[in-house]
Amino acid sequence: MHSAYLIVEIEVKDSQAYKAYTAATPAVVAKYGGEFIVRGGRVDTREGAAPAGRVVVIRFPSYEKARAFYDCEDYAALLALRLSITDSRAFIVEGAD
Hints:
Blueprint: E1 4-12, H1 15-31, E2 35-39, E3 54-60, H2 63-71, H3 73-85, E4 86-94
Antiparallel strand pairs: 1-3, 1-4, 2-3
């Protein structure tokens, strides 16, 4: 079974509300076996357009677990919050392992 990665580019518009989002999200991620690999940090863009803000990468044990996390009821309210306080782009990618 291959790991999968949820990759999110996030430009934060409301930093106080984003702190609440980042405080609550790890518990839901953990329920689906997810692990944060990248949470912001420096970006060195070598090709194409640079991300507008932060980059977050979460590894899940499978593609199905990543999709289940993103679509779960526990994350729905957090997702709605994130979408209201950020400009973002998210995608799930299956790993090569």
